[in-house]
Design a protein that fits this description.
The chain is of the alpha/beta class and about 375 residues long. It is about 30% helix and about 20% strand. The protein is built from twelve helices and 21 strands. Strands 7-6-17-18-19-16-20 form a seven-stranded mixed beta sheet. The two termini are about 20 Å apart. It binds flavin-adenine dinucleotide and uridine-5'-diphosphate.
Length: about 375
């Protein structure tokens, strides 16, 4: 009946379903355990008609024209560019740390001296990861790096991941490099924005082909089993392909131990005023239990007398109660993942795509790119 089974109606699952249905004209069943499609990108209108992101702020940004053009078939964009401030020593200053941040936090004479050093050693409009700047041999730059590390990265990372920056793959803190520039934008990608009518509407359009059926509120293991490296669907051997976008450790029943993840608690609050804060996201590296506050109206420019914010409280992931928002990038967990990957390669018609199945800290654009590439290999 179905040519493809897809586990998960997030971005990875919906891109695969859309391609298979529209390009191959084959039948797809998506099995999704939540009560909606869109995975972690899901958004909705709250009780005051404000568009909010249920699972934390999602800003689309990419340098990949192919990905931008692909998604643009399903939505127009609002071209919003994110600005982030960090609450440091009682001031709200631009993040990523840049030349403006330097001048706002340090006394004029040291800021000027350090700016000259940064321009000389790193160069205008260049970026440098904090862990690399900390290895600087120049005494002044080393001082600055330690200062930024303490004020911006150390406590935020401990809160977010439960470990210090050095215990994570360097790519994690490299996401927010020091920027030798006066440009306060959070991302510098060529294409940026949010779907003009929200992510959910974009997802609905992606899966509107009648070749695609979706069952919600169903865990894949209620209907799919792996037995002797064969795929079984509803008790019978399945002849098509299984595209899996859930947790790879769950697929193999945690045979080699659980892969660790970080989770989040989201606390939404509404206010009877037009705006709560200056920009879309304010980071709180040091003094609060939450890492950041997002105010959604900045993303959309919605006119509304009320506003809505969400605070993010990181926490360890517990299989029974939490959503595994972040795979934890480090060598030990990567090696555990590789054991699962090796096992998965024995199953001929199994394709793994997405943040959970590949255990990678992917942004949305990389997930789309991965899915488009894996589609080509079907
Ligand atoms: P998911 O969105 O997790 O989708 C997987 C789907 O599979 C889910 O719907 C899940 O319910 C379902 N599923 C899992 N297990 C089962 C099961 N057992 N049975 C049935 N269904 C199952 N990226 C950006 O580019 N920009 C951002 O600003 C950004 N912000 C983010 C903020 C937060 C707080 C988080 C957590 C992520 C953010 N991301 C951002 C990353 C982005 O969310 C992911 O890249 C993208 O959603 C991954 O898509 P996916 O399909 O791989 O995974
Ligand atoms: N980070 C930090 N302080 C900040 C912003 C980021 O220490 O003010 C570090 C932290 O380790 C974080 C990582 O950089 O997890 C990536 O930040 P990003 O904003 O990309 O996180 P995401 O939006 O993916 O949660």
């Amino acid at each position: 009946m179905y040519d493809y089974l897809i586990v998960g109606a997030g971005l990875a699952g919906c891109v695969m379903a859309e391609r298979i249905a529209n390009i191959l004209d084959k039948k797809v069943l998506i099995i999704e355990k939540r009560n909606h499609i869109g995975g972690n990108c899901y958004d909705y209108l709250n009780e005051n008609d404000i568009l909010v992101h249920k699972y934390g702020p999602h800003l689309f940004h990419t340098d990949l024209l192919e990905v931008w053009e692909y998604l643009s078939q399903f939505t127009k964009w609002n071209n919003y560019q994110l600005h982030v401030l960090g609450f440091i020593d009682g001031k709200k200053v631009p993040i990523p740390f840049n030349l403006n941040t330097l001048h706002e936090l340090l006394p004029d004479d040291s800021a000027e001296k350090l700016e000259r050093k940064l321009l000389d050693k790193i160069g205008l409009n260049n970026k440098i990861p904090i862990l690399k700047l900390r290895r600087s041999e120049d005494r002044d730059l080393k001082f600055l790096a330690d200062y930024i590390y303490e004020k911006v990265f150390l406590n935020y990372t401990k809160k977010q991941w439960g470990i210090i920056p050095e215990e994570l793959d360097p790519s994690v803190t490299e996401r927010v490099p020091i920027y030798i520039s006066r440009d306060d934008k959070f991302f510098n990608d060529i294409y940026q924005g949010l779907p003009i009518n929200g992510y959910y509407k974009m997802f609905e359009k992606m899966v509107e082909n009648p070749n695609i059926k979706i069952i919600l509120k169903t865990n894949f293991n209620e209907v799919i089993k792996l037995v002797d490296n064969e795929i079984f669907f509803l008790g019978r051997k399945f002849d098509g392909k299984l595209i899996f976008t859930g947790q790879i450790d769950e697929l193999f029943n945690y045979e080699y131990d659980e892969l660790p993840y970080r989770s989040l608690k989201f606390e939404f609050e509404s206010f009877d005023k037009e705006y709560y804060q200056e920009v879309g996201i304010v980071n709180y590296p040091n003094n609060q239990d939450y890492t950041r506050i997002t105010e959604f109206k900045h993303f959309t420019n919605q006119e509304n007398q009320k506003t809505c914010i969400v605070k993010e409280y990181p926490k360890p992931y517990c299989r029974e109660t939490d959503i595994p928002y972040y795979p934890i990038p480090n060598i030990e967990y990567h090696n555990l993942y590789l054991k699962y990957l090796k096992k998965s390669e024995k199953i001929k018609d199994l394709i793994l795509v997405g943040r959970l199945a590949e255990y990678k800290y992917y942004n949305m654009d990389t997930v789309v790119m991965e899915a488009l590439q894996k589609f080509q290999l079907l």
